[in-house]
Amino acid sequence: MPLLSVLLLGGCMAGPDYVRPAPPAAAQQPFEEADGRWTPAAPAAADPAVAWWTRYGDPQLDVLVEQADRANQTLRQAEARYRQAQALVGSARAAEAPTLGVQAAATRERSVTPKPGLRDADTLGFSASWEPDFWGKVRRSVEQAGDNAQASAADLAQARLSLQAAVVADYLQLRFDDQTLALYQRTLAGYRDALRLTQARVRAGVASDADVAAAEATLHSTEAASTDLALSRRQLDHALAVLLGRPPSEFSLAASDAPLPALPPTPEALPSVLLQRRPDIAGAERRMAAANAGIGMAVAAWFPTLSLSASGGYDGAGLASLLSVPNRVWAVGAALAGTLFDGGARRAQRAQAQATFDAAAATYRQTVLSAFQGVEDQLAAARELAREQQQQRSAADAAQQAERVLMDQYRAGTALYSAVITAQANALDAQRSLLQVQARQFGAQVALLVALGGDWDSANLPAMRGASPGATPAPVVPE
C-alpha cells in the first residue's frame, strides 16, 4: 500500500527528462564581421520593447505595419495553427482526469420462461473510470503538446517578424523608386533643354541634324526607362496591398520625393543574445523538447496499464419502484493489462522516437548556425555597402561635374554633342547607381534587424502547463 500510494500521488516519468542544450562557446564572442566597428545605438533604439521599424522615423510606415498585423491572411493562418496547438494541449490534459458517465434505459420485453408475459426493465446508473498515469505516458503527452504549442507560438512570432520585414522592405524600396523617378524627371527636364538648345544651334547652322537625332534618342530612351520603373513601382504597390490584406484596387501609396532619413544605427548584440531573440531558434528548440517527450511516451508503452472503474445505480421492473433500495446495484473493479509480445513494434517505436529527437536536434543546430551566418552576412553587407556608397557618391559628383563642364563647352561651341551625350549617360547612371546602393544599404539593415530577431524575445513565449521548461543549460544534444 505505501508503494501504491506513492505511485498514485506522484508516479514516475518514463524516458529522459529534457534539458535545454548549452549555447556553443562561440556564442559568447562578438560576431566576426562586426570587427569592433558597430555604432552603439541610442538607448531607445536598443530597447527590445521598441518596435524595430520605428527606428526609421516614418509615421506612414508605422501605420502600414500595424495594418498588416491586423489583416494579413498569412499571419491569420499562423494564428489559427497556434490555436489548434493550444486546443491539443487541452485534449492531452483531459486524459489525466477520470471519465464520468450516466446511463438510463427503459425497455418492455416479452419472456417465455419461467413465466410467459410482458415485463418492464428499467435502469438508471452512473459510471466512473480512471487510468492512473503510473509511468508518465499521459504527462509526457501533455508535455509534448505544451512544447509543440510553444513551438507554434514561436512560428507565429516568426511569421509576424517576416511580415513586418516584408512590409518595411517593400515600403523602403517603393520610396527609393520614388527617388529614382524624381531623378528621371529632373534628368528629362535637362534633356529637353539640351534638345531645344541643339535645335536652335541647327537653325543657326552651327550643329547638324545628327546632334538633334542623338538628343531625341537620349530623351526617349530615358522616358522609356522611367516608364518601366513606374510599372515596377505599381507592381510593388500591389504587393504591399496584399501584405496589408487588401485588394490592390483598393490601395495606392501616393508618390513622394521627400528624402529618406539617414540610415539609423544598429544595436550591438552577441550571438548568445541572438539565441534568445530569434523565434525560429526558439521554435526549433521547443520541437526538440517535444521530440524528447515522445521518447518518454515510447518508453512508457513497455509498462502495463491499470484501469480503475466503478458503477452504481438502479435496475428494476418499473419506473414507479425504480429508485427503491432493493433495486440498487453497484460494482467496483480494477484491470491490469500489458503486452507480452508485439513482434518488435514497441522497440521500433522507441527507435523512431529517438530518431525523431536526433533529427530535431540536428535541425536546432542547423537553425543556430544559419542564424549566425545570416547575421555575419548582413554585417559584412552593411560594412561593404557603406564603403561602396562613399565610392559611388564620389563617382556621381564627378560625373555630374563632367556633364556640366561639357554642356558649357557645347554651348560655347568647343565640344561635340557626342561627348555631351556620353557625359549625360554617365551622370544618370552614376546617380541611379548611388540610389541603388543606398536602397541596398537599407535592405541590408532590415535583413540584419530581422536576423537579430527584431524586438522579439524568447521570454515572450506563452507558459504552457506541462511544457518542459529546459531552464538548466547542459550539453545533451547528440553530436
From TrEMBL:
The keyword Lipoprotein applies. This is Efflux transporter outer membrane subunit. The lineage of its organism: Bacteria, Pseudomonadati, Pseudomonadota, Gammaproteobacteria, Lysobacterales. GO terms for molecular function: efflux transmembrane transporter activity. It is a lipid-anchor. One of its GO terms (cellular component) is cell outer membrane. Keywords: Coiled coil, Lipoprotein, Membrane, Palmitate, Transmembrane, Transmembrane beta strand. Belongs to the outer membrane factor (OMF) (TC 1.B.17) family. The keyword Lipoprotein applies. Pfam families: OEP. It is found in: Cell outer membrane. PANTHER family: BLR4455 PROTEIN (PTHR30203:SF33), OUTER MEMBRANE CATION EFFLUX PROTEIN (PTHR30203). Residues 61-95, 372-405 form a coiled coil.
